């Protein structure tokens, strides 16, 4: 399985960074439940899907029941990260099949995966459908956290659509890659859609420690801005 450092090297500084993100999410609700969380980025290749996968692992390692929902129909990744068959959400929406019948195990106890399924012709329509809302409601009855992997917010509106039915949105940016103006524009678009931004992850930070470099995510709240 690729890029699953939280599983392969749980004592690494990178894995500890994911646990820090986990802790901050737990306290982000300020007394309200944060269960359905959308993850988006400004543009592709900022490491969004890898962050979602590793965060799902550390959340499950803490005893939570977690599901990763791959809603990036335009560039699905979770089935490749976890080496799973890509039969999933689009099949469920199109056929009305019970969502519980197409869940797959991740290899980490407590973490399930609902892959995107075959590429859908109209992703935005699927995400805005009543059936999608029903799927989320059903999953919310069985899981402590639903981590929703969505496309980048600047090219398409999919993340904003899902953010409207989620409890919060986390925006991914990349060190020395994401232009500040693009991050501001992403934040503006999410807020204009009525999405609740609960934080940002700065990914791909290089820190020299003991003669080697590593990348990690840094999380903070928007709560006091």
TrEMBL record:
Keywords: ATP-binding, Kinase, Nucleotide-binding, Transferase, Tyrosine-protein kinase. It catalyses: L-tyrosyl-[protein] + ATP = O-phospho-L-tyrosyl-[protein] + ADP + H(+). GO terms for molecular function: ATP binding; identical protein binding; non-membrane spanning protein tyrosine kinase activity. It is an enzyme of class 2 (transferase). The keyword Transferase applies. One of its GO terms (cellular component) is plasma membrane. Its EC number is 2.7.10.2. The keyword Nucleotide-binding applies. Residues 46-179 form the AAA domain. NCBIfam families: eps_fam (TIGR01007). Belongs to the CpsD/CapB family. This is non-specific protein-tyrosine kinase. The lineage of its organism: Bacteria, Bacillati, Bacillota, Negativicutes, Acidaminococcales.
């Amino acid at each position: 399985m690729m890029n699953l450092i939280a599983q392969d090297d749980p004592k690494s500084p990178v894995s500890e960074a994911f646990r820090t993100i986990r802790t901050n999410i737990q306290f982000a609700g300020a007394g309200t439940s944060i269960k359905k969380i959308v993850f988006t980025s400004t543009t592709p290749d900022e490491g969004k899907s890898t962050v979602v996968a590793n965060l799902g692992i550390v959340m499950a390692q803490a005893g939570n029941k977690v599901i990763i929902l791959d809603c990036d129909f335009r560039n699905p990744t979770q089935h490749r990260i976890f080496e799973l068959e890509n039969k999933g959400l689009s099949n469920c929406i199109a056929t009305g099949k019970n969502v519980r019948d197409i869940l797959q195990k991740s290899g980490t106890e407590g973490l399930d995966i609902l892959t995107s399924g075959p590429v859908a012709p109209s992703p935005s329509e699927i995400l805005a459908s009543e059936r999608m809302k029903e799927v989320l409601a059903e999953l919310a009855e069985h899981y402590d956290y639903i981590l929703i992997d969505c496309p980048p917010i600047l090219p398409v509106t999919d993340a904003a659509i899902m953010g409207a039915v989620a409890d919060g949105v986390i925006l991914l940016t990349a060190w020395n890659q994401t232009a500040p103006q693009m991050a501001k524009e992403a934040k503006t678009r999410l807020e204009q859609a009525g999405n609740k931004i609960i934080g940002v992850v700065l990914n791909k930070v290089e820190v020299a420690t003991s003669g080697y470099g590593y990348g990690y995510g840094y999380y903070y709240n928007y709560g006091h801005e």
